[in-house]
Hints:
By secondary structure, the chain is an alpha/beta fold. It has helices at 40-47, 69-74, 91-101, 107-120, 136-148, 166-178, 192-198, 216-221, 237-243, 277-285, and strands at residues 2-10, 16-25, 28-33, 55-60, 63-64, 76-79, 154-158, 184-189, 201-206, 209-214, 227-232, 246-252, 255-261, 271-272. It has a 6-stranded mixed sheet with strand order 6-7-8-3-9-10, with helices on both faces. Strands 2-1-4-5 form a 4-stranded antiparallel sheet, with helices on one face. The protein has a 4-stranded antiparallel sheet with strand order 12-13-11-14. Helix 3 (91-101) crosses helix 4 (107-120) and helix 5 (136-148) runs parallel beside helix 6. The mean pLDDT is 94. Residues 11, 13, 15, 17, 34, 36-42 line the site of adenosine-5'-diphosphate.
Amino acid sequence: MLQIANLSKTYPNGVRALSDVNLDISNGMFGLLGPNGAGKSSLMRTIATLQDADSGTITFNGMDVSKNKQELRKVLGYLPQEFGVYPKVSAEEMLHYIARLKGVSNDNERKELVKALLEQVNLYNHRNKSLGGYSGGMKQRFGIAQALIGNPKLIIVDEPTAGLDPAERLRFNNLLSEIGENIIVILSTHIVEDVNELCNDMAIIAGGKVVQRGNPEELVLGLQNRIWIKKVRKEEVAFYQAEYKMVLAKLSGGMMMVYINSETDPGNGFVANKPTLEDIYFSNIS
Ligand code: ADP
């Protein structure tokens, strides 16, 4: 169990990136969803012991993380947002290197481990290729392989699918979903669909604050019979924004589809729409 209590962080330039964040996270896939600049990476780096908060605590299975950084690092697998690779080294060599750093000193054991990891992330056939020649999706899958070394109990992946094409994204998400349910996996992302597909628990963070928290399906149920849509012209959007509780407006065949939240039938050409996690997201970040 990971417990984050009253965590706050202000950078030297005055930006308050985290503001009294409280989150209890249990085993399974946890989605941390928020727009760019919300504070996701700041929170991920703090949990990963790469930076300190100004106040508050993070506890992992009862252990105060800020006072036991080395202990936490032993059970942590981390895939940072900017995951640099040594371009001239092959995936196999790099995994051997990292495994040795993480203490897998027995040659045979390490060989078995590296082979199993390469197979798990579907890179075994590309194991001798240098990492510089890997596609975005392959790099991210390699990133997961290195994060899995050492049987981590806590895995943090920070915006892993941001630069991937749809097929690579699907492949990456399938891989993430196969990682054990008996560990905590925190997926930080601005992509609502990733959380929808993968996570059984989530929080929305905006402006450094947790603004929503819960099981994605239950959160969406809370909007049952409340979302109404209407196709309008672009220049009409401002009117609807002023008149209704607008959730979002998005392009649809050159027109704008306006989504509003209303307990009762708003009439005026609106039709009922099944709520989605996107409605939850946009209801909370604006
Ligand atoms: P996210 O990962 O959700 O995009 P970040 O945690 O990266 O959010 O950033 C939160 C806020 O803190 C942003 O306004 C960002 O510009 C600022 N920020 C992040 N890192 C630093 C830093 N090292 N120094 C100053 N400001 C920072």
